[in-house]
Amino acid sequence: MKRIGRYAVIWVPPMVLLAAFLFRAEILAAAAAVGRWMFCPMYAFTGILCPGCGGTRATLALLHGDLWLSLRCNPTVAGIVLVLLLWYAEAVLKCLGKPRKLIPRSLWFWLIAIAVLLLWTAARNLFPVLQPPVTLIL
Question: How far apart are CA 11 and CA 95, in angstroms?
């Protein structure tokens, strides 16, 4: 890997995250200025919560540092963030010459993860306590 590419893999993603964190107030204000937040087409047309419902609220809660509220809104967002962090760590370790596999590559692991996601979707539609909160006060 070229020397510049190695440094880009290591430093660009953290700088993007730092910029998003530092300018989160402006990002949130711009999103609020549009009016309504994005709506879920599946919920709007069928009344069924999709696996992504509450994802925007979960992301906003993470930007504010409230992990518990983020997990309450949509735990899959925290899972996606964890996978992205592990993916980034793999890339950094590879650039440093110490490649490691941190994300499972097994087909069975990913099939089980998809099954858990489907069960979560069914459970949040059956039990109102698992639905994302309607309002988000940050």
Answer: 11
Per-residue pLDDT, 137: 44
Q: Are 97 and 103 in contact (CB under 8 A)?
A: no
* Burial tier of 125 (Cβ tally within 10 Å: 0-12, 13-18, 19+): middle
What distance in Å separates the CA atoms of residue 94 and residue 9, rounded to the nearest whole number?
A: 10
Where are the domains positioned within the chain?
3-130
Confidence (pLDDT) at 37: 57
pTM of the complete model:
0.70
Place of tokens 């890997």: 1
